[in-house]
Amino acid sequence: MKYLIEATHNERFHTLMDLRLPQCRELRAQRNELPVRHEEWRY
Q: Is residue 40 part of a domain?
């Protein structure tokens, strides 16, 4: 819902996120380390 207040990922957006979810940057870093796709599919 922060996108309704601030549509871009500028400093104001990150400040708002830090206020509501202090670990936001850490969670984003963890998310970015996850694989994008599953390499081995079995059918």
A: no
Q: What is the DSSP string of 1-43?
A: -HHHH--S-SHHHHHHHHHH-TTHHHHHHHHHHS-SS-S----
| Domain assignment of residue 6, given as a range | 2-33
**The whole model's pTM is what?**
0.55
Question: What is the tally of structural domains in the chain?
Answer: 1
Please give the Cα distance from 28 to 31 (Å, whole number).
5
What is the spatial distance between Cα 34 and Cα 19, in angstroms, rounded to a whole number? 25
**pLDDT one-digit tens code per residue, 1-43:** 666 788 888 888 888 889 999 998 899 899 888 887 777 767 7
